[in-house]
Amino acid sequence: MNTPFQAARIEQRPFGQANGRDTTLWTLCNRHGMRVSVCNFGAIITSIQVPARNGLTECVLGFESAEDYTAAAYRAHYPYLGAVIGRHAGRIAHARAPLNGRLLQLEANHHGHQLHGGPVGFDSVLWQYHSSRSDDNGSELTLSHTSANGDQGYPGTLHTRVTYHLGNDNALRVQFEAECEQDTLVNLTQHSYFHLGGADDGTVARHQLRIAADSILNTDAALMTDGTLLPLDGHALDFRQARAIADTAIDTAFVLPEGHGPADPAATLHHPDSGIRLDVCTDNPVLVVYNGVSLPTLPAPGRRALQPFGAICFEAQGYTDAANHPAFPPNILRAGEVYRRHTVYAFAW
Q1: pLDDT score, position 201
Q2: What is the DSSP letter of 40?
Q3: Exposed, middle or buried: residue 254 (CB in 10 Å: 0-12, 13-18, 19+)?
Q4: Does residue 315 carry a catalytic annotation?
Q5: How far is it, in rounded angstroms, from Cα 271 to Cα 64?
Q6: Among 88, 260, 270, 315, which one carries the catalytic annotation?
Q7: Tell me, what's the pLDDT at 191?
Q8: pLDDT of 153-174, one tens digit each?
Q9: What is the pLDDT of residue 6?
Q10: Catalytic site residue 191?
Q11: Which residues neighbour 151 within 8 Å (Cβ) at sequence distance 6 or greater?
């Protein structure tokens, strides 16, 4: 679809209240009419709209007010829609992790384990505005958050920034940076759920998916890894050749192969009717893919309703539960070092 060129810009408006505090929504716009909206509560991507062949198409799950992100019905089966996850994405077994010869006792929030940073992770706090700009290259927003020493059981005061840059090449670039005055654990990710079809298309079953991984982390029924890799040859989760997702249940950490570069697509998602394609590129070693097996059935006024298998999430990150598996590359940020990780969501239509 041809769209008229326009100036890249940033729009800003109130977005309601989260936990009694006022929130703000910024919308990044590029010259082709693509729009990405971000709320400072949880640094949540609330909307990604692309001007595809069937008109402006919403490509992620989300809500139209901050109150919806804190509502009891949503939090009862909380799927972390669009949020930044930290300090540590994924599961940490028994909420315990060794670091520098001592055992960290973390805050548990998932059947005795820690999931996605604990009961009050980065997804559930109000981030601070840091900076924004728009120019010939697109529009950009940076938010920051300071996590105090001991927050959710993690040592050190951690200063984190997330930058969302929407380029005129229709790519959304997400950059994380973090620093701490003590050694700590850090594993950040973005948790948006994608559906590239129109409003009348239900689940993601008809989406074509390719994942550039030849192994996954071996997990038990509780999705806890045993520290080994499982080859994908002959496996039901082998998506090295693009194919329809169909009824495949995916909640899996795919390990990107050695030699896979940060500009190489780790995953590609395509919808046959809308024509929209999404390439996910990252400098992280692991891509957790989750196609909403346990998404709740929940209305979203003015938006696509939530339902099981209703969208797919690509969580680029470090190895799951790395602290408890010495063979895995560690998710340790040393004092004085800077954590930097990038993920790119590149759209075409």
Answers
A1: 80
A2: S
A3: buried
A4: yes
A5: 24
A6: 315
A7: 98
A8: 999 999 999 999 999 999 999 9
A9: 85
A10: yes
A11: 87, 120, 158
Among 256, 263, 265, smallest CA distance to 285 is for 256
55, two tokens: 């008109």
Residue 270 has which token pair? 């395509």
In eight-state DSSP terms, residue 255 is: E
Nearest of 249, 227, 255 to residue 236 by alpha carbon: 249
Q: Give the residue carrying structure tokens 């998602």.
A: 269
The CATH number given to 9-348 is: 2.70.98.10
Residues 6+ apart with CB under 8 A from 346: 169, 170, 171, 172, 278, 279, 280, 281
Give residue 19's identity as a one-letter amino acid code: N
Q: How far is CA 227 from CA 29, 128, 323, in A?
A: 42, 37, 10
pLDDT digit string, tens, across residues 249-306: 999 999 999 999 999 999 999 999 999 999 999 999 999 999 999 999 999 999 999 9
User: Exactly one of 113, 191, 207, 260 is catalytic; which is it?
Assistant: 191
pLDDT per residue as tens digits for the range 177-226: 999 999 999 999 999 999 999 777 899 999 999 999 999 999 999 999 99
Mean pLDDT for the stretch of residues 118-141 = 97
Q: Which residues pair with 138 in a beta bridge?
A: 135, 167
C-alpha 25/C-alpha 41 separation (Å) is 9
Residue 172 CB burial class (10 angstroms; 0-12, 13-18, ≥19): buried
